[in-house]
Write a structure and sequence with these properties.
7-stranded parallel β-sheet
Length: about 625
């Protein structure tokens, strides 16, 4: 728990839950501002009696104070990241549960008083993907803890229950994603008036929104970005919007600077009062949670979460018709290598709920990638998402969805084009997730594979393994592993995949592990588990495992027969025998082919064929090798 909050009602309720149900425990108070993974690891590894803990329950989220060195980061969030990193440095398999209070809107009447704590939920969903074996889940306590709360906490923590995202209210409510209702008609169609402020206004998403607003008749648009009029394409965008009849102003402003934002808002002319805000600014992230540091967290939270807080606070007394926040799917279900980004966007979703509960306009849209804006404008990124079951959104469809959300006064909504066969399979391979259970049944791994292509791949690899020495076999498999790993992680060469570096350090998570397993299963013909990169944590160790499966007596019957035929072919030359022998061998091979393909008519099969039908595979190889006089060279398996 955070030091100084020992008497907090949420702390008391949690301790009571453990005491009342006989759980031995130690209460550890932490100074969140000084939390460091290296120092935390030994504290978390052992109880005072020397035993190892079976679980860890964190209430660090309760500390919402800004970190003294990085004010954009709540101290509780910084400390939670340090705890996850510390657990990753220990051999513990003790699930970490994080407790928040008033951080999520579990019902339509929830006030959601503490949106900053929602950042723990965003980061936690990433932890569940990147560290599936050490993550327990998330519990949100009600704003007012009562006598029934401890028993409900204990019920969520009970071993074997499947839920990992739970809000405790009058009862315990589990989080689910469900399909949004799409009524054909809306009470009123939202239209812009006065001035609309767009943060990130010169970026890809902001420019699309600006064009849509201009076509909707927006009288004035104020575009804000860090570069302002110096941003690439800014001049052309102004000309385009002006040509549509809209007055345009572009300002260079750091919206995370409260004083600068206040000054900007004061410059909006009275004849065009501010009536709508679209917060589309943000900074991308590609950092695993294990490598996260405080400057990195702050860099992502500042333009997204802190700027949103300033926009909320400085406009809450204005008569706005729309307050639009551009969130992300990373907040809705978690995004690998996006812990800070998921945290920042989870705050946007919570802020929208917080505003609605206070009677203020708010709409937070958790977007999947757009097809021609933002990161997804890169073909490599598009391919990355497609392979994971996420098709980039068509821009026109995204804009139509934005209009629909405003027309129907949606508060939080996720907009994505998902392949419901592929996405859930990868999402839940390492860790079951009830979150998606109402949307689609998990597809069986490899459902989209092409059997003929897979057989060709596995046969090719097995033939290459047959003729190599043990060292060559290992090197061949290692090369295959590095090639597939580099392709999945987006590296141009296998140099980025050192043989001795753990897969998780290279950037593998639950989703990429599943795709990796599918690729290797196709290449080897083996039925490989989705836990492959966790069970054999480095490329070198995985190559040893695959060689043992493929070479040391565990080939499939198909692979065994193919390898035997290849061995026979490699030591046999038709010119080594006379013509009569070649005819006999050719005849027997034709009969063998007819038996296996079952394409010859039964009446054309000879007595020799009947004899072959009763022969074993070993008999067939013996017959062939005897004809060549090389039985001593063939050997037997």
């Amino acid at each position: 728990m955070p030091s100084g909050l020992e008497e907090h009602p949420a702390v008391h309720a949690t301790v009571q839950a453990l005491d009342a149900h006989g759980a031995a425990h130690e209460v550890l108070s932490l100074d969140g501002a000084g939390a460091r993974p290296d120092a935390l690891a030994p504290l978390l590894s052992h109880l005072p009696d020397g035993s190892t803990p079976e679980g860890i329950l964190s209430l660090l989220a309760l500390d919402q104070t800004p970190h003294p060195d990085h004010p954009a980061v709540p101290t509780g969030l910084a400390a939670t990241a340090a705890v996850v990193q510390a657990l990753g440095q220990t051999p513990l398999i003790a699930p970490l549960w994080c407790v928040t209070q008033g951080a999520v809107a579990a019902t339509a009447t929830d006030p959601l008083p503490h949106p900053h704590q929602a950042q723990i939920w965003g980061m936690g969903r990433v932890a569940a993907l990147e560290h599936p074996h050490l993550w327990g889940g998330l519990i949100d306590l009600p704003a007012d803890v009562d006598a029934r709360t401890p028993a409900r906490i204990a019920a969520v923590l009970a071993p074997g229950q499947p839920e990992d995202q739970v809000a405790i209210r009058a009862t315990a409510l589990a989080r689910r994603l469900e399909r949004a209702a799409c009524p054909d008609t809306a009470p009123t169609a939202w239209r812009p008036a006065g001035t609309t402020l767009i943060t990130g206004g010169t970026g890809g998403l902001g420019a699309h929104v600006a064009r849509w607003l201009a076509r909707q008749g927006a009288p004035r648009i104020h575009l804000v970005s860090r570069s302002g009029p110096d941003a690439p394409g800014a001049t052309q965008l102004v000309q385009e919007l002006t040509g549509l009849g809209t007055a345009v102003t572009i300002t260079a402003c750091d919206v995370s600077d409260r004083a600068a934002l206040r000054h900007l808002l004061d410059t909006i002319p009275a004849e065009y009062p501010l009536t709508a805000v679209v917060h589309a600014a943000g900074l991308a992230e590609n950092t695993p949670l294990a490598e996260l540091d405080l400057p990195g967290i702050a860099a992502v939270l500042r333009p997204k979460a802190l700027a949103a807080a300033h926009l909320h606070e400085l406009t809450e007394d204005l008569d706005l018709s729309a307050f639009v926040l551009f969130s992300s799917g990373a907040a809705a279900w978690g995004g690998s290598r996006q812990p800070s980004y998921a945290a920042a966007n989870a705050y946007l979703d919570a802020l929208a709920e917080h505003r609605r509960a206070r009677g203020l306009p708010a709409t937070s849209l958790a977007w999947a990638p757009w097809s021609d804006a933002g990161m997804a404008a890169d073909e490599a990124v598009i391919d990355y998402y497609r392979r994971r079951g996420m098709r980039p959104l068509d821009t026109d469809l995204a804009i139509a969805s934005l209009q629909h959300a405003l027309d129907h006064a949606d508060t939080t909504i996720t907009i994505a084009d998902i392949d419901w066969e592929r996405f859930p399979a990868g999402f839940s391979a390492q860790r079951p997730s009830p979150l998606l259970s109402d949307l689609a049944a998990t597809a069986s791994p490899g459902a989209d594979a092409t059997p003929d292509a897979d057989a060709a791949l596995s046969g090719s690899l097995q033939r290459q393994l047959t003729t190599g020495s043990p060292a060559q076999q290992h090197q061949l498999l290692l090369h295959h592993i590095q090639t597939h790993a580099a392709a999945i992680l987006g590296h141009p060469t296998i140099d980025a995949i050192p043989p001795a570096q753990p897969f998780q350090e290279l950037g593998f998570d639950s989703l990429t592990a599943v795709e990796f397993g599918h690729r290797l299963s196709a290449a080897t013909g083996l039925d490989l588990p989705p836990t492959l990169v966790f069970d054999h944590p480095t490329p070198k160790e995985l190559a040893d495992y695959l060689r043992e499966r493929l070479v040391e007596g565990q080939l499939t019957s198909e692979g065994h027969l193919l390898s035997e035929l290849d061995r026979w072919d490699s030591v046999s030359e038709p010119s080594a025998v006379d013509e009569a022998a070649r005819r006999r061998i050719t005849g027997r091979l034709r009969l063998l082919l007819a038996k296996w393909s079952d394409t010859e008519r039964e009446t054309e099969r000879s007595a020799a064929h009947s004899e072959l039908e009763t022969a074993t595979a070993e008999d067939i190889f013996d017959l062939i090798s005897d004809e060549f006089g090389k039985s001593d060279e063939l050997g037997k398996s």
